[in-house]
Prior knowledge:
By secondary structure, the protein is of the alpha+beta class. It has a domain at 65-174: 3-Layer(aba) Sandwich (Beta-lactamase). The chain has twelve helices and eleven strands. The strands form two sheets. A seven-stranded antiparallel β-sheet has the order 3-2-1-11-10-9-8, sandwiched between helices. A four-stranded mixed β-sheet has the order 5-7-4-6. A hairpin with a 3-residue loop joins β9 and β10 (317-322). The longest helix has 15 residues, at 62-76. It is globular, with a radius of gyration of 19 Å. The two termini are 12 Å apart.
Amino acid sequence: MDGSLQGLLSAAVRAGVCPGCVAGWSVKNQRETQVESAGLSDLGGDDISAGPQTWYDLASLTKPLVVTTLFLLARRGGALDLGRTVGDILTNAGPYRDATMEHILTHTAGLPGWAPLYASGISPEKILAGISALVPVGPPGGQVEYSCPGFILMGLILEEVLGEGLSTAFIRLVTEPLRLNDDLAFNPQVYIHSVAGGATRPDVENQLVRDLDLDPRTIPVWHLGLPDDGNARFLGGVAGNSGLFGTIRGVISLGREYLPGGGLLLKAEESDLAAECQTQGHAWPRSLGWQIGSSPGCSAGPGLSQSSIGHVGFTGTSLWIDRQQGCVMALLSNRHHPAHRGIDLHPLRRRFNSLVSGLPG
């Protein structure tokens, strides 16, 4: 273990960046996951140390780990392809009926970045109506607009074509074959797993709702084991934009599937397709569900290849896959426990990624 990595994590905890964090990595295409941690997973008074056993709210890592992976598997079975439109699958998709799977997965479908769907007066069963009522930011393919509603919509599409709930499909098609049922899941059992503490007050979402002149009392109640994201809680903790929880082993293991050559689950052609930039000509390079390392201001850092793929989560999580160097690295934290911290984690993520990419194989 490189002492500078341990020092980096410990310094972040001492500085109040997060109560604790767990880092994991594999280098030079190795299958073994290296892990280091610092701090506590919960500040509730029990002094529970963060470690390999800690389950974190992965937030938007749900988008590539769940939605992109399930899309690739549905595509393999012939149920979906990149050119298929929303309207081919879901009726009443409103202004988004002509958007394709590629548009949604690359955040170019014209859907807005965020909306409190729970505040629109609909039931969870009518979530498609809530999404269809959102005013587009532009036509499909017109611009890159990172969109949480877009991935909620993609989750609905996957449920329709696979004929089962998103969580059930993820278990059957992903975690069971990879033997990761004890490392990745929606709605983790808090009496079985060591789930890291979350934000006890929805301060950020509360303000976002108020800014829209809506009632913050509509924000769904949070408790340990439910995701930080209000829309995901509204949908029972399972959504295409957020809701996945997991350990560092689970995140690294699934991340390895996206290295060149694929892995135990994904084929080489599938991992290559997922990593290929699909937004040429746009300001923000995006592949299928993933950000690309050449994106301006992203958290990849100078130590990673420009073609690396990765993602971050609002709760304090990040995953990057440097396909050129054969490295997978993840940094998991619960930075908003017990309350919101307005700290930019990108400098920490970039430094961590650079240190890992420099480790010998």
